[in-house]
Write a structure and sequence with these properties.
By secondary structure, the chain is an alpha/beta fold. Helices cover about 30% and strands about 25% of the residues. Strands 3-1-16-18-17 form a five-stranded mixed β-sheet. The protein has a four-stranded mixed β-sheet with strand order 5-6-8-7. A four-stranded mixed β-sheet has the order 10-12-14-13, covered by helices on one side. The radius of gyration is 21 Å and the shape is globular.
Length: about 450
């Protein structure tokens, strides 16, 4: 499996840029928005609450059918310009233009959508109900609700989960210490802080992805970040322009596939934010050879190229609990590689995996065993024995990253593998299977 490819735009960045565009005072132009279902959920929800000028373009993009040349969500052996050609223009009218929606906001399967929007709507002078699919309604929301209540909003959850009802109010700044690392909670509090009186401070136990802070800094907001402490004050930003970098978490699965099959791969126009690339360090310890080169920047986000070359084989490693937040989205592909390594790999303190789109902690152990490998859950640790996969059958449980992880693991199995629920990959990487085929992987329908 080898070649040159560009992955869809970064989902985490796209959520935040869409929110900032819809609440900006002025026009924003964004290229490279990924057509993933999660990001369309954010655009659809924003279309229901933003001002009348921003609504048409957001609604149209959220509901459009991708053109034939975009349907797979990736470009094969291209220049990267293809993603930039599809531009979305949003006429923002500022936060004061937010309006009460006529129906509950359906966030689909997107935890990022529901949590970040909670922060935006905490200052809006109306009540909003946020909900989602069965999976999302099992996700914890009190970790977001508590700081927003402290800031002055009225926030009600359903036994700590969605649906969530928010009655916005005049907010005041707070000093909030995150009990667990969460870029979504951090982002929600910072977005609320943009409409709060006084300073808002968030303290992280360990660093998490900093896309919110980077964008706000480039937009001129009074945001400061040092040693895990982030400060922000009230600010109304203007419109902006930018092309969303390729999603490095999506690229991780292609990197893993190339490493497992001994191929050479170049991923271009991909985001290289240092809070998102720790998986490369872990892969390096496992014997994967990946070089990176920065070529530019977009609204504070570094972007560039990844080069994967053939290594000498995979070995087990230990991922410490302090590392987990930095590789939380890439654990499925790291586990897939670990299943084929020499020796044991342990993901320590991985309890947060229970709170993702599915219970990934038990799900990954079941997936590896289903494909003929050896894995177990030991307390809050995921332990993968290594030694390869004999082949078999696995269920992605409706989880996009589990589906992609299973596909990568199957590429190195000694016999055939059947994976149920591969369609879930469209949540973050439309056309993932097509990308594998284009790079030479043998993947059946």
């Amino acid at each position: 499996m080898e070649g040159r490819i560009a992955v869809p735009g970064d989902k985490s960045i796209a959520h935040r840029w869409l929110i900032l565009a819809a609440t900006a005072q002025g026009t924003s132009r964004m290229a490279g928005l990924p057509g993933s279902l999660d990001v369309r959920s954010t655009a659809s929800c924003l279309a229901q609450v933003c001002g009348s000028k921003a609504r048409p373009s957001l609604d149209a993009w959220a509901s459009e059918t991708p053109r034939s040349d975009q349907a797979d969500g990736f470009t094969w052996d291209g220049t990267g310009d293809e993603r930039r050609e599809h531009e979305v223009t949003v006429e923002g009218e500022g936060r004061d233009a937010l309006r009460k929606p006529i129906r509950p906001l359906d966030c689909g399967n997107s935890g990022t959508t529901i949590r970040l929007l909670a922060g935006v709507l905490a200052s809006a002078p109306f009540a909003t109900l946020l909900t989602g699919d069965d999976s999302l309604r099992r996700r914890p929301m009190e970790r977001v609700a508590a700081p927003l209540r402290e800031m002055g909003a009225t926030v009600g959850t359903t036994d700590g989960h969605p649906p969530v009802e928010i009655e916005g109010s005049a907010l005041h700044g707070i000093h909030h210490q995150l009990l667990a690392p969460s870029a979504q909670v951090k982002g929600a509090v910072l977005l609320a802080g943009l409409a709060a009186a006084g300073q808002t401070t968030v303290v992280e136990p360990v660093p998490t992805r900093d896309h919110t802070e980077r964008a706000l800094d480039r937009l001129g907001a009074p945001v400061r970040s040092k040693d895990g402490t982030i400060h922000v004050a009230a600010f109304q930003h203007d419109g902006f322009e930018g092309a969303v970098p390729g999603d490095v978490s999506s690229a991780a699965f292609l990197v893993g596939a190339a490493a497992l099959t001994g191929g050479e791969l170049e991923v271009h126009d991909v985001g290289l934010n240092p809070t998102r690339t720790h998986f490369l360090t872990v892969m390096g310890r496992m014997g994967v050879r990946v070089d990176r080169r920065q070529t530019g920047e977009a609204l504070g986000e570094p972007l560039g190229e990844l080069f994967v070359s053939a290594g000498e084989g995979l070995i087990g490693t230990r991922i410490e609990a302090r590392e987990l937040p930095l590789v939380i989205d890439e654990v499925p592909v790291l586990a897939a590689l670990a299943a084929h390594g020499v020796g044991e790999t342990r993901f320590a303190g991985a309890e947060e995996l229970r709170e993702k789109e599915s219970d990934r902690l038990t799900g990954l152990a079941d997936l590896i065993r289903g494909l003929g490998g050896h894995a177990e859950v030991a307390g809050d640790d995921l332990v993968v024995a290594g030694g390869g996969l004999a082949g078999g059958r696995a269920d992605a449980r409706g989880d996009h990253r589990m589906a992609m992880g299973a596909a990568v693991a199957a590429l190195g199995a000694r016999s055939g593998c059947d994976i149920e629920g591969m369609e879930a990959a469209a949540v973050s990487f439309p056309g993932f299977v097509g990308a594998l085929r284009a790079l030479g992987a043998r993947v059946g329908a």
